[in-house]
Design brief:
about 350 residues, mainly alpha, about 80% helix, disordered N terminus, disordered C terminus, CHAD_dom
Length: about 350
């Protein structure tokens, strides 16, 4: 991903892909992911009984379903030139629907756990007492008391709201998994596991057909990283989050393309990827705290605790951005330039 990096990658693969067609490289990857999708689906059905152990197994299987869905969909998007275009676009759209539907329940559960943990930590933390005088100490004591009382109420409010949202997301996921739309997706993936609808262009050498799209996915990522704000005093709101979320999605597409052309993920991108995941989680948690604070007729102490919680999660957003900048391994100008 440094200048000329794509050329180095091509050279590395001349010995392994020189005699392979694009289809011979692309098809096994898609078939492997399709097989993983089908295994995860079977495990999800086997573990969907209403028991604690079954629920845990179903959650793990749903996570594996999401991962294989994202990999198949991302590969169909990046390398569509080597695939039947109509089929690839249709299946990619359906897999995005499925992955998004399954992800919501997990997202609400993760968000609630994150917020409750943060509230617990904040309610046990001393507030700053750098102000001078007895009046300042009394004000700090009042703030601590308000936060202590409000944290419990804020936690209860968040638990009600996010548990309800999670329950609705769970019902939507179950409904989706039982729908004719999902069965059509599962049938399409089952066919993919045995046969990949390739375009005539897939008969061309892999070096010629696959590295170009992979390089474009890489360049889209580099461009997005270069466009990220470098100002440490970024606006204290959600307005600047969107480019970071987009960069996270582009990093995912690049990772999947790297897996296809290199056979394995790029290890140096693991830390930046985790930082962007934490950025997304903190951003969404902050939004949930702000939404809860807009609940009508809540007590002032509850609103105060939610405000502190929102500020804490926005601080976590900025921290995640700093971690990303520190761990980004390529082209320093992309994250430190003007």
């Amino acid at each position: 991903m440094t200048p000329g990096g794509a050329g180095v990658r091509r050279h590395d693969h001349q010995t392994t892909q020189a005699d392979l067609t694009a289809g011979a490289v692309l098809a096994p990857y898609l078939q492997e992911q399709a097989a993983e999708f089908l295994r995860s689906l079977r495990l999800h059905r086997e573990n969907s009984a209403p028991t604690d152990a079954g629920t845990h197994g179903a959650e793990e299987a749903a996570g594996a379903l999401r991962r294989s869905s994202r990999r198949i969909g991302g590969t169909l998007h990046t390398f569509r030139v080597a695939l039947d275009a109509a089929w690839a676009e249709q299946l990619r759209t359906e897999l995005a629907w499925l992955s998004g539907t399954l992800a919501r329940e997990h997202a609400y559960a993760t968000r609630l756990g994150r917020l409750l943990e943060a509230l617990h930590s904040l309610s046990g933390t001393s507030l700053p007492t750098a102000r001078n005088g007895v009046g300042a100490d009394r004000a700090a004591d009042k703030e601590r008391a308000a936060l202590g009382v409000g944290a419990a109420r804020a936690g209860a409010l968040l638990e009600r709201q996010l548990t309800l949202a999670r329950t609705r997301a769970h019902s939507a996921a179950l409904q989706a998994l039982g729908s004719s739309r999902f069965h059509a997706v599962a049938d399409a993936v089952a066919l993919l596991a045995s046969e990949v609808p390739l375009a005539p262009a897939a008969a061309a050498p892999a070096e010629e057909m696959l590295h170009g799209p992979a390089d474009r996915a890489e360049q889209h990522l580099l461009t997005a990283v270069a466009a990220l704000s470098c100002d440490q005093a970024e606006p204290y709101n959600e307005a600047q989050d969107a480019p970071w979320h987009r960069t996270r999605l582009l990093l995912r597409l690049h990772r999947y393309a790297h897996e296809v052309v290199r056979g394995a993920p790029d290890p140096v991108l693991a830390a930046p990827g985790r930082a962007l995941d934490l950025h997304r989680d903190a951003s969404e948690a902050a939004a949930a705290a702000a939404s809860a604070a807009r609940t009508p007729r809540i007590a002032p102490a509850t609103a105060y605790a939610l405000g502190v919680l929102h500020a804490d999660q926005r601080h976590e957003v900025k921290t995640a951005r700093g971690v990303f900048r520190a761990s980004w391994p390529y082209t320093a100008a992309a994250v430190t330039g003007p």
